[in-house]
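Sample entry follows:

_____
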Amino acid sequence: MIQGRDEDEGCCCGGHEHDASEDCGCGSHEGGCCGDHGGGCCGGGCGHNASDDQIRMFIVGPIETDCYAYVSEGECLVVDPGNSGAAIARHLEDVRVTTIVATHGHGDHVGGAKALRDATGARFLMHEADVELAGRAGEASELGRSYDDDAPEPDQTIADGDVIELGTASFRVIGAPGHTPGGIVLLGQGTADGVAFVGDTLFKGSCGRTDLAGGDHDALMATLARLREEIPARTTLFCGHGDSTTMMEELEGNPWLQPGAASDGMH
């Protein structure tokens, strides 16, 4: 569990832990995350299963993007550092950040990647189809928002079926186009079994929007149909914004995961 406060960058941090039998409610900050984030970053931690692996969470940027750090045997994978990359690095000084992954190229998910890579020397990975989009993270988007920096060129591009390894954990890359052309989902294996980082593809009770440049409603519906088949029901889904959830909850109650769903997303 992380505790403390970075006053220079408005970064508050708290955390919680839970057992394998518990759903991780990281997004709700129950158990110790301090109040107003003020566009900075909020860090927490939770051990998701019986192993020594840990998930830490940071809420970053003006629309409160969920950034995650998965730690296994002292190695750390950071998913979606959308802002406050230098502050995130300071909160991870007790581990070795080896890899940074973007689930897609929107600025609110990659704006802190450059500062985090500069601070840690970690490799930066993302899907080739979103590299150009990520390279404009520091510019005003079509919604008028900008973030810390343009994302750097990736050290390696990743695609469907690739596997990212750290410690005793690994993550299989599932191509997830729709919200953006190069969206991906990271499905945990090994000691990360039961975890998936889903970015803005899937939310609690909803799914990603497709009305921005590069969005494709039909592609997103096909992606959701695939995830319905490939992600086990017991998996905890760590989303790009808001609360985490489980695949079982979404299979039961998310209208965009029902067979034949055709409505557009909400986020």
